[in-house]
């Protein structure tokens, strides 16, 4: 299968006014800083420079700006600034030291996402397992039940069947995806059978702040509800994985396949924003107190 880009979008239009690009970048960074203050993030197809900050800016604001500024470097969003505006909320988990942005509103379509935090951030030892062997566990989750959207963060050790080396710089995006997906099943089946439940569409890697992040897109071909009649009903996922302390941290976002055309772009922006943060005093590494469940 020919590899396709994780974010399928039209190529960026060439601009005849390249000479004014530095000025446009400078202006865009100012606009983004103002939009952050009112809670609005605008997705653009042009790169922009990250503003310089002095001491006194909060950790949450720094995280929000840092995430927003790198989205276009990972995924080449299609369209222009005037075409699509997306308000994003920020989620920061100090227990597991990561953050991400999630869609809140599409003002142009007067559409509001209806998120419910079904799992508040918790330590790995007390988190809900995704498989009988309890290797992969959900440490936080938010759901939009009405629009069939799920954003979850899971943590688990690498599967040595796919990631044989301990040197993460040698890992391919496909092997990382296979490692995560092989442990992602509530059924008592083998790793190979769990992997067969999913169809990997694309996988690629990107280096951010000197650390590799692996991005992949896949389908799970099974009905998410007992009442679904369509035999080919599936969920469409995008995910980002990073490694720390010998564990894989994965953010995944999904919706029903028939809703992907409308929701896919917003979910891809969420996945692109996922970052591991420098640990604070609140950070609890996955290997600490594995017996503790509170």
Automatic annotation (TrEMBL):
Domain PsbP C-terminal, residue spans: 151-275
Upper lineage: Eukaryota, Viridiplantae, Streptophyta, Embryophyta, Tracheophyta
Protein name: PsbP domain-containing protein 5, chloroplastic
Source organism, top-level taxon: Eukaryota
Pfam assignment, any one: PsbP
Main location: plastid
Subcellular location: Plastid, Chloroplast thylakoid membrane
InterPro entries per the UniProt record, alphabetical: Mog1/PsbP_a/b/a-sand, PsbP_C
């Amino acid at each position: 299968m020919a590899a396709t880009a994780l974010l399928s979008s039209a190529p960026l239009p060439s601009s005849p006014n390249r000479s004014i690009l530095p000025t446009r970048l400078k202006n865009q960074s100012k606009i983004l800083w103002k939009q952050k203050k009112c809670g609005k993030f605008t997705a653009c197809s042009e790169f922009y420079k990250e503003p310089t900050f002095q001491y006194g800016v909060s950790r949450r604001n720094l995280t929000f700006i840092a995430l927003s500024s790198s989205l276009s470097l990972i995924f080449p969003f299609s369209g222009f600034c005037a075409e699509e505006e997306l308000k994003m909320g920020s989620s920061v988990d100090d227990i597991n030291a990561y953050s991400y942005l999630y869609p809140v509103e599409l003002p142009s379509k007067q559409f509001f996402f209806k998120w419910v935090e079904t799992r508040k951030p918790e330590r790995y030892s007390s988190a809900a397992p995704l498989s009988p062997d309890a290797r992969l566990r959900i440490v936080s989750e938010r759901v939009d039940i009405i629009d069939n959207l799920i954003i979850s963060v899971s943590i688990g050790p690498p599967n040595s069947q796919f990631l044989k080396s301990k040197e993460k710089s040698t890992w391919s995006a496909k092997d990382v995806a296979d490692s995560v997906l092989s442990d992602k099943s509530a059924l008592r089946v083998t790793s190979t059978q769990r992997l067969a439940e999913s169809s990997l569409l694309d996988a690629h890697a990107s280096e951010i702040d000197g650390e590799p992040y692996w991005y992949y897109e896949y389908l799970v071909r099974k009905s998410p509800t007992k009442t679904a009649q369509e035999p080919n009903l599936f969920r469409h996922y995008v995910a980002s994985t990073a490694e720390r302390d010998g564990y894989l941290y994965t953010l995944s976002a999904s919706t029903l396949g028939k809703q992907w055309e409308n929701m896919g772009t917003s979910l891809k922006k969420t996945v692109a924003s996922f970052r591991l943060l420098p640990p604070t005093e609140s950070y609890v590494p996955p290997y600490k107190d594995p017996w503790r469940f509170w």
